């Protein structure tokens, strides 16, 4: 079985870099994107095993990205991260099918636990 491809979508460069480093240290293949729009243009979109995305981003939010992916027929799991957690956004994310919801700053081991669970539940690979 191939190594899962994890897509990290966040407009904050430091969060992208830290998350990428954490995931690579755990053996994952990682691609990063500065926006939801950039991710949606990725030639490896259908290879993505899990999306880790910020909730609040310019133009298209993480929740909007999840909705767009579902509209396009992608069932890949999503883990949301946000610097502005609130119960309404958390409930929206989880009811939309999010595999996890984390407030920044988050513990690396917690993200890995969510990711491992999401990949296991999704069979470990991309879902088109």
UniProtKB/TrEMBL annotation:
Any one GO BP annotation for this protein: phosphorelay signal transduction system
InterPro entries (alphabetical): Bact_response_regulator (IPR050595), CheY-like_superfamily (IPR011006), Sig_transdc_resp-reg_receiver (IPR001789)
Pfam families cross-referenced by the UniProt entry: Response_reg
Keyword hit for Oxidoreductase: no
Sequence ranges assigned to domain Response regulatory in this UniProt record: 5-119
Keywords: Phosphoprotein
Residue numbers carrying 4-aspartylphosphate: 54
PROSITE patterns for the chain: RESPONSE_REGULATORY (PS50110)
Cross-referenced SUPFAM superfamilies: CheY-like
Name used for this protein in its record: FixJ family two-component response regulator
Naturally occurring in which organism (per UniProt): Bradyrhizobium elkanii
